[in-house]
Each structure stands twice: as C-alpha cells, then as structure tokens.
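Encode chain A's predicted structure.
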Amino acid sequence: MATEPENLRTLTRKPDRGGDRDLLDEVLDEALVGTVSTVVEGWPWSVPMVLARLGDDVIVHGSTGAGLLRHVAEGAAVTVTAYVLDGLVVSNTMFDHSANYRAVVVRGILEPVDDEAAALAALTDSIVPGRSSETPPITAKEVAATRTLRLPIVDGQWTAKARIGGAGVDTDEWTGVIPVSTVYGEPVADTGDTTPASVRRVVDEQ
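Encoded structure for chain A:
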C-alpha cells in the first residue's frame, strides 16, 4: 500500500472545528449508517452501510456477493465516513446559512474479524441493545453467507470535525438554529403479539 498523503491528516478549512477521539467514537456510535468508499480503476465507489464501532474497530458487513466488499477485502484502501446533523443554521443572508453537524472519516485497510459470529452479534446489539440474546445464535450457514470486516481506528488515520453555534453575524435581523434530532417512533409489528424487550427499550430509553 502506498504511503498515505500528509494532507489527508490535516483539516485545512476551519481547523478549529477539529475534534478528538471522543468525538470520533460519539459519531460512530450514534450514526449507525456510514459510507464505505474506495477506488476501482480510477473511479470512486461508495456504498452506504450499517456500521458499528467495537472498541478500536469499525465493523461493516454484507453479503459475500457484494462487489465492494469483495474488492476491499483484497486490500484496497478505504474511507468510512459518518455524520450526524444537529441543526440548521438560519442567517439573514443566504451566504451565512449553515448547519451544525458532527462528522468523521476513518481511513485504512479493512481486515477480516477474528470471530464473525461474535462480531455480528455485537453489531446487532450496537443497533438494538440486547437483541442477540433474544434470538437463536447465528448459524454456520448464515456466517458463511456474510462477509464481516473491521477497519482498525489508527492514530493519524482519522479525522473528526464538528460545528456548533449560531450564524455568528452582527445584525438586528432574526437569526437562529432549527434543532435536528433522530427520534424513534412506536414499533410497528409485522408478526407476533408481544414486542421484544430490546425493541421496547430502544423507544422508551431514547
């Protein structure tokens, strides 16, 4: 693998918005969905995927037939990006409108996980905590049909950035922020009569 360019490690615009490892972990834990990107024959290739942070790894998974996962499993460099939109910043001029956000980029090489069944259970529990204990263990056939990879979070190979606050302009006209948040609604059943405890907790503990 070629040496990573130095400019990938530095925020060149608004460097004061750069964040630390706590911000990185916070966004990865909250976003739930990120984008895995790589390059194939000079062309960018990006696929949104459900993700989870397990310690110092970002875990992604998909079908063994997924073309992007097959490609990156062979050692192609990737980025995993994720963001959370926290607010719409409204100003008195179009130029000064903005958004409050938290965003991260992790770069590197995806690697196989040590224990695919355990990683898939942990990924499930990162999305719906406790769900894996309410379902049968994943089968060998299901594991064989799934490609599970980890991207190590390595110092110097990630960036985190956030914007907070208002428009920051000097005016007597109205400016402000429209807060944005993700809210879980009441579960809608497809089958069965009793809502699992893990599903109930997602809604009740938000």
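The CA atoms of residues 11 and 85 lie 19 Å apart.
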